Every structure is written in C-alpha cells, then in structure tokens.
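FAQ: What does the model actually see?

It sees only this:
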Amino acid sequence: MVKKQDTSFRVEQQISLMDFLLGKMGGMSRTSVKQLLSLRRVSVAGAIQTRGDYTLLPGDRVSVSSGRGNTALNHPKLSVLYEDEHLIVVYKRPGLLTVPTRPESSETTVQSILRAYVRRQHPRNSVYVVHRLDRETSGVLVFARTPELQEYMRTYWRQLVTERTYIAVAEGIFDQPEGTITSWLTEDRRTTRVYSSPTDNGGQKAITHYKVLKTSNSKLDDSPTSLNSQLSTLNYSLVELHLETGRTNQIRVHLQSIGHPVVGDRKYGHGLDESPIDRLCLHAKVLAFIHPVTEKKVRFEAPVPKEFNRVLL
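And it is asked to produce this:
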C-alpha cells in the first residue's frame, strides 16, 4: 500500500495541483510546494503525483504526507514515475536487468530494487513483472503489485496498451523516411538469438512501424530531394518506432534485418566498437495503457537520453 497520508483535501473545481496546494497549505511558498512534490509527499486519488501542472478535477482527493518514515526510492539507475496500490511505473536507465536471468542469481535488478522499496512500506509487499526491457535499454517499465494483476495484465497486454513508442539511433541512412517492418521471429534457445524471416515459418509474427526523425548533422524534411542529397554524407539516423506487437528483441532484430542495426548493439549489430557512446542506443520513450483497475487511460513518458543527440552531431 501507498504510505499513510496525514492531510487530505477534496477538490471542488478544476485547477492545477500547484495552485490548489498554494491555496490549501497555509501560505506555503511556491518553492516549498515544489519541494513537497519532488519529495513525493503529495498524492492524488491514492497515486503519488510530482507535477505541479497536473490538472485536478472536481471530486479528486489530494493528500499530503507529513514526511515521517519517508520511503522514497533513491537509486542512480531507477526512479519512480507513478505508483498506486495496484501498479508501479518506473524509469529504468541502461545497465540494469528487469528481472534475474537465473532463479539463483543475486544480481541487482529492477525487480529486486522495487521489492526492497515496497517492503520498506510494509514487509509483506512485493512487485511482479508485467513486461521487460533489455539490460542496456532505458525507458518506461511497469510492475504490478499483486500476482493476480500481473496475470491479468500479461494476458490482456495487447488490449490494454494504447501506445508504445521507442527511440533508437540506428546505423546508416534509411532509403525511406518511414515504413513498416513485418516478419516472423524465432528464437534459438541455445544461443538466445532471435532470427527474422520475411515469410511465415511458424514463428511469431512481429510488426514494427518506424519514422526517421533526424540524421547525422541535419534534420530531415519531407522532401525526397532533400533526403537523397544527404545520403552520401550521413552515418546515423534517429528513429521513432511504434510496436504493433511486442516480441523478444523485436526492434533490434527488425532494424538489423533491414540493414540498420541499433548503434551499440553487441548481439545484433557491430557493438560498442562502432558506437560513439558506451551504450545500446535504444530507449522506451512512451508507454500508455488502460489502467486495469480504474479503467482510465494513463500515459508515461521518459525523455530521450541527451547522449542520443550527441551521436548525431
């Protein structure tokens, strides 16, 4: 459960959270309210809220914690974007596994960090993985707080998710500024490599839509002439990818299959030897889905890592 709150207010009219708190918190300054938000001591309808520009609606309940027994997550590679009594949504940085690769592994993972975090709130609390990001992929990740909700979200994941957007830096220049990659993916369990086939070979059908946002040293416009004039001088492309399906290593395999592997990909590309930065250039930017309990649409976004743009300079 979310930690106990000390002060609660009912919202009577539509208003920003900042303005509401300024009016309710006894003359507290804007700076002090911002600090309350940053310390994760404010929640709306039971969910922690850190944005002052969040819009409150009539009937919402705003709660403010005294800060006693603060259990905020403090980890250099993981931060909480949202939490309520049902879900925790986090921003994972590269270099952290979602879950252990082996049951006996003692390696630090997102799951182990979050489990320790929720157990500071109550010793019986736990978290359950709904989907995964590769170790070197950064971005938005969601966990359920009960095994029943985990099973429900896994079963109906495709129906619940309304938007899933990734950003990648890919090698080379695309022939087309946007398109769709469709193939059938199979995994070799001995090597854990995934292979792509353009025809149905009994594997899992995978569909990825892509759009080139920018290329090295220059932004693209919609003119084919402008694009063609850049092909001989540019080496990298910043690509936005929308997943219609969510298969293991789907983006990495699909980009490799069209000759544009993700920069820094050791498994499906040229690895760090060909990367200007020391990481896989893949980022889960947006995840939007229907909340399985409230049935409201929720959307979470993690900003594109600054180092991606440095690759394109």
